[in-house]
Amino acid sequence: MDITGQMKDFSLFAGISAEKLHLLGAQATYKTFKQGEMVIGETDPVRSFYVVVSGQLKLYRSSAEGKEQTLQLLGPGNPFGLCTAFATDSFPASVMAIEKSAVLLIPGTVMEETARQEPVLLLNIIQILSQRLKDSMILIESLALKEIPGRLASFLNHELLRNAADKKTIVELTLSQRELAKILGATPETLSRALRKMANDGILATAGRTITILNNKALEQLAEGE
Prior knowledge:
Helix content is 44%, strand content 23%. By secondary structure, the protein is of the alpha+beta class.
């Protein structure tokens, strides 16, 4: 496994010298996880920096009653565990593989030392944290102020904008509707009803995990609560 070769393709390590990148790779641990396997549990004592190499993970919180809220999906190149690498010793959420995945674990002390010598690494981390803060604000607003159809419309609109360069009206879901429901704070049944209603209204069409947007303006209006 060429760990350093994998790392140089991730935006997190953009601009890092080949020497430091090799050092990070040499001290990283490569681990694989099966679908449904826990990567980190809430309050786990952790002092490592994680980077997804392949597959897809979900970062989520669970209530005492067992209700689950997905906070973020993590794909190849996405880091997590930043707070445990640089600050706290416990992880504030759980991370689970939702498909077969591979992850790099880099000791927090190694990341700290590299960041002191390679300031571009800190800049990359700040940019990632800034985007995550923005995404979290959008999620909070959606959960607090919108009903399920509006949340679904916001999610789909965000996916379209994220891939705006492709100029497509198709969203290919990388997760099941059950997992999507956890992101939207809904039950699978409520999500299914919202999809049927939007299909009946001519806003979209579904075929498995493929969602085709038929009326972008109506989708945007629904996302904005109009």
